[in-house]
Each structure stands twice: as structure tokens, then as C-alpha cells.
Amino acid sequence: SILYDIWKDRSRKLHRPYFRILLGMSFFDVFASASLGMSTWPIPKGTEGVYGAVGTTQTCTAQGFFNQLMLVNPFYNLMLAWYYLLLG
After folding, report:
1. pLDDT tens, residue by residue, 49-69
2. In angstroms, what CA-CA distances link 31 with 7, 36, 70?
């Protein structure tokens, strides 16, 4: 995984912007993937028309928060593109 690869050699890699951008992108991607992977589980139990809803209002709110973190990934991707454009 990218997170592990950067973390095991962090003393050298975290000094370069490329690896810091990749680390941030990977970090937020883990949370976004976990949130999407839970699918309908966090939705409050008893919600009509939702299969597999076993959560509470709090779990639904938490999933919504982590779903919003997915918006960070395109910005990290944009930063990576700018990095390649300016230094490539």
C-alpha cells in the first residue's frame, strides 16, 4: 500500500512534496473507501425502502461526514497534476 511504503521510509520521503501529496491522497481515500464500503449499514434501522439499514442517526451522520471527505481527493489529484506540470 502507498501509506505503508511512505511510512516505512518517512524520514526521506516526507521531505519531498510528491510523497506528501500521495500520503494525503491515500489517507483520505482509505476513509472514503471505508465509508462507501459500508453502503446502507449506517442508515437508521427501519428506514423504508433501504435494504440492510441497521444503524442509528449517529452512524448515518458519521457516514455522511466521511462521504464528504471524498471531496478532498480531487483536490489532492489536482495538486499532483500541478506538481507534474510545474516540475515535469
Report:
1. 999 999 999 999 999 999 998
2. 17, 9, 8
